[in-house]
Amino acid sequence: VQLQASGGGLVQAGGSLRLSCAASTNRFTIMGWYRQAPGKRRDLVARISITGVTSYMNSVRGRFTISRDVANNMVYLQMNSLKPDDTAVYYCNGVPPDSNSWGQGTQVTVSS
């Protein structure tokens, strides 16, 4: 499955960004957004099932919203009230992830 994440950028703390993920197929029942900061492991930030059930890591709950357009093989991550600690490369993949499907991700940088 090919996955293309986009929508990252540089934003000031408190700002918002919307990430998009285009998937070549809807093979994954559960899709997720992951992030990896320099020198840190890649963490699952949010996930959504094909029926729309969502869950979030504690540090983003209430600020981030994941959504999914099953018909068009798209997954989104609306990020509000961004903090410098949210700075990372963001990736989309299935949950559990397919090691062959990691794309290049999209860089999110939050300045203080």
Structure commentary:
With 112 residues, the chain is an all-beta fold. It is built from no helices and ten strands.
Total count of helical runs of at least 4 residues: 0
Q: Quick one: overall form?
A: globular
Mean pLDDT: 96
Strand content: over 45%
The helix/strand class is mainly beta
Uncertain segments: none
Provide the succession of SSEs. Answer: EEEEEEEEEE
Largest sheet: 6 strands, mixed
Radius of gyration: 13 Å
Q: How many extended strands?
A: 10
User: Kindly, what is the distance between the CA atoms of the first and last residues, rounded to a whole number of angstroms?
Assistant: 36 Å
Adjacency order of strands in the biggest sheet: 2-10-9-4-5-6
Q: Level of helix content?
A: under 10%
Task: Name a few traits of the molecule.
112 residues; mainly beta; 6-stranded mixed sheet; 4-stranded antiparallel sheet; 0% helix; globular
Walk me through the topology.
Blueprint lengths: L2 E4 L2 E4 L4 E7 L6 E7 L5 E8 L4 E3 L7 E6 L4 E6 L8 E7 L11 E6 L1
Parallel strand pairs: 2-10
Antiparallel strand pairs: 1-3, 3-8, 4-5, 4-9, 5-6, 7-8, 9-10
Short description:
This protein is an all-beta fold and 112 residues long. The protein has strands at 3-6, 9-12, 17-23, 30-36, 42-49, 54-56, 64-69, 74-79, 88-94, 106-111.
